[in-house]
C-alpha cells in the first residue's frame, strides 16, 4: 500500500471509526462468553469454560468497533461488575431464558447494580438467551420476572436470542451500534 493511501486510511479511521465500550454481565451459565464468541465471528461450543475474572473482544461492524467486556457471572465475580460498567456506552445483561429458577437471583443482581449512582442513565439491553431450548421464558415473561418496567431513566430493551442457533443476533448488533449515534 502506498504511503498516501495509508495516510488517507488513517485519517478516515480517525473521523469515521467510533469505538463503543460494552459490558456483558449476567449469572454464570447464561451464555455471555458464547454470545461474544459468536458475535466476534467464532464458532459456538457446547463446552464453554466458565469465565474467571473477565474476557475482552472487539467486534467490528462497519465504522463501529464494539469493545466488549465479558465478565464472570459466578457469585465471587459479581462485585466487580460495577467497576467494569462505569462509563460504558451500554450494559448487556444476559439470562438463560430456559432456566426459570435462576430468574429471581438474576433480577436481584441486576437491580442491585442498577441502583448504584454510577450506573445512572447507562442504556440497558436485556437478552434472554437459549431460545433454542424448550419451555424458555418469552420476552414478556422476562420483562415481568426481571421487573424491567421499574427500570427508568435509561433506555431499556429486551430480546430473545440464541447464541447457539445465532437467532436474533442482528438485532443485538443493530441495537448496540445505534448507541454510537447518541
Ligand atoms: N442450548 C444453548 N446453550 C447455550 C447457548 N449459549 C450458551 N450455551 C451453553 O451454556 C453454557 C454456558 O455458556 P457460557 O458462555 O460459558 O456462559 P457464561 O455466561 O459466559 O458463564 P460464566 O462465564 O460462568 O459467567 C455452555 O455450555 C454453552 O454451550 C444457547 O444459545 N443455547
Ligand atoms: Mg463466561
From TrEMBL:
Name of this chain's protein: Uncharacterized protein
Keyword Lipid biosynthesis: no
Molecular-function GO terms, alphabetical: GTP binding; GTPase activity; metal ion binding
UniProt keyword terms in alphabetical order: GTP-binding, Magnesium, Metal-binding, Nucleotide-binding
Binding-site list for GTP: 26-33, 73, 129-132
Gene3D superfamilies for the chain: P-loop containing nucleotide triphosphate hydrolases
Domain of life assignment: Eukaryota
Gene Ontology biological-process entries: protein transport
Protein's UniProt keywords contain Protein biosynthesis: no
PROSITE patterns with a match to the protein in the record: ARF, RAB
Family annotation (InterPro entries): Arl8a/8b (IPR044154), P-loop_NTPase (IPR027417), Small_GTP-bd (IPR005225), Small_GTPase_ARF/SAR (IPR006689)
SMART domains registered for this protein in UniProt: ARF (SM00177), RAB (SM00175), RAS (SM00173), SAR (SM00178)
Any Pfam family matching the protein: Arf
A GO-annotated cellular component: lytic vacuole membrane
Family: Belongs to the small GTPase superfamily. Arf family.
Signal peptide interval: none
Ligand binding (Mg(2+)): 33, 51
Amino acid at each position: 500500500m502506498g504511503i498516501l493511501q495509508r495516510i488517507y486510511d488513517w485519517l478516515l479511521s480517525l473521523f469515521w471509526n467510533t469505538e463503543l465500550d460494552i459490558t456483558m454481565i449476567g449469572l454464570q451459565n447464561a451464555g455471555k462468553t458464547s454470545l461474544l464468541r459468536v458475535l466476534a465471528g467464532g464458532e459456538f461450543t457446547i463446552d464453554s469454560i466458565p469465565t474467571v475474572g473477565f474476557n475482552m473482544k472487539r467486534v467490528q461492524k462497519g465504522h463501529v468497533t464494539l469493545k466488549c467486556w465479558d465478565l464472570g457471572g459466578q457469585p465471587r465475580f459479581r462485585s466487580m461488575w460495577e467497576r467494569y460498567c462505569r462509563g460504558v456506552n451500554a450494559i448487556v445483561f444476559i439470562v438463560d431464558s430456559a432456566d426459570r429458577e435462576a430468574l429471581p437471583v438474576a433480577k436481584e443482581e441486576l437491580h442491585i447494580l442498577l441502583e448504584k449512582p454510577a450506573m445512572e442513565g447507562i442504556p440497558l439491553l436485556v437478552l434472554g438467551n437459549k431460545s433454542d431450548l424448550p419451555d424458555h421464558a418469552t420476552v414478556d415473561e422476562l420483562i415481568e420476572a426481571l421487573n424491567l418496567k421499574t427500570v427508568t431513566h435509561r433506555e431499556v430493551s429486551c430480546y430473545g436470542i440464541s447464541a447457539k442457533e445465532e437467532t436474533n443476533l442482528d438485532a443485538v448488533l443493530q441495537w448496540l451500534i445505534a448507541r454510537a449515534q447518541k
